[in-house]
Amino acid sequence: GWDRALLWCVLVAAWEAAWGQLRYSVPEEMPKGSFVGDVAKDLALDLPTLHDHGVRIIDRSRTQYFALHGKTGHLVTAERIDREQLCESVQQCVLRCEVIVKGEMQIYRIEVEITDINDNAPSFKERDLEERISETTAPGSRFPLAEAHDPDVGRNSLQRYELSGDEHFSLSVQAGPGGDQRPELVLAKALDREEAAFHELSVRLVLTAVDGGDPPRSGTAQLCINVTDANDNPPVFAHDRYGTSLREDAPPGSTVLNVSASDADAGTNARITYGFQEAPAKVLQKFVVEAESGTIRLQEALDFEDTRGYTLVVEARDGGGLVAHCEVEVEVLDVNDNAPEITVSSVSSPVPEDAPAGTVVALLKVRDRDSGENGQVWCELSGEAPLSMVSSSVGSYKVVTASALDREEASEHRVTVVARDRGSPSLSSRASLVLEVSDVNDNAPVF
């Protein structure tokens, strides 16, 4: 049957250090029950022992993604896994889990890489795009276009853009700071309102985004170019890039930064309004820019443990439709707002009173989602008992017997595990352990 318990999966990026004793890979979107790996064979585990003593899979995510087949020792999928839902923009999607063989009091660590399939086509947030360009705009002028989004990764992700529709325009693709592709419309030939092609003062183009899958998938947007009368000068930002930092406990309404652009034109052509260029919903939920002043404000609470920084692209648009862009990097600063979390992975109770000193009686996991000193944790046992705690690896502890037990003196021992972080002020958590002592025949009858 399926043995499911206490799932603990952690998403990790590709740059993290190797963690597991076993590493498997499985494509996303595989049906429930798909084979992942032969854990029993790869760990040289005895199947009868697994069946008699039982095993547990520990996985910290809210959803159980894997199960272990007790009769075969096979690791299989317990749910259909959507890589894009789990990892979003993470290049390498890895789930971690632990297998505990109860009879051995042994933990085996497993990593499963979720590989991408080309199940998403590139798409534009809006299918109909519009640009306003003055008839006096010089050939070679560039106009940023909306970017397409493809949640797949690697070759299956967005690879190129194509433009079709009119000889007056061409396409240029620039590399963004994160390696993303940013399409720009380039004016190849001078515009003339009196030409027959522009008698309605508009041009229609098709912008196509193509991924690298086999076969490739694509998405399109209709681009309408409105040719306007002269607006000679686009807005210019005081800086191309801005940087600032904000504590994660900053209240909504806090001012993040003020950006400023100027325009050498006069009248309505010089009136500038500010806004965000196309951005993920998470960014638009957190921040807002005042259209008239360029002041960026926080509108939803931050969480350092969720996102440590944001890149905002602010657009300045003048009354004639010309635009400029600047980037704002917002660093989120950690505060000590998370107490350590204690997880009792396994308890061996009762323990024979003749168990030798050093016998492992419990396995614990401790973590703190803060960073730096706020996330550094030390643990201790509180209570009178012949027990001690030793660290087996980062965040993992064993509770062992410190000396011989005597059931006739104490039939059970109660201790409290205390975990404290090194933040200021320090936060702590507690967990109780109850250890029963079983009798052995170590006393002769006495008259």
From TrEMBL:
The keyword Disulfide bond does not apply. Its main location: membrane. InterPro entries: Cadherin-like_dom, Cadherin-like_sf, Cadherin_CS, Cadherin_N, Protocadherin/Cadherin-CA. Residues 1-20 form the signal peptide. It comes from the Eukaryota. Coiled coil: none annotated. Residues 126-151 are annotated as: Disordered. One of its GO terms (biological process) is homophilic cell adhesion via plasma membrane adhesion molecules. It holds the Pfam family Cadherin. Residues 25-124, 125-237, 238-342, 343-447 form the Cadherin domain. SMART domains: CA (SM00112). One of its GO terms (cellular component) is plasma membrane. One of its GO terms (molecular function) is calcium ion binding. Keywords: Calcium, Cell adhesion, Glycoprotein, Membrane, Repeat, Signal, Transmembrane, Transmembrane helix. The keyword Cytoplasm does not apply. It is found in: Membrane. SUPFAM superfamilies: Cadherin-like. It is a single-pass membrane protein. Gene3D superfamilies: Cadherins. This is PCDGE protein. The gene is Pcdhgb2.
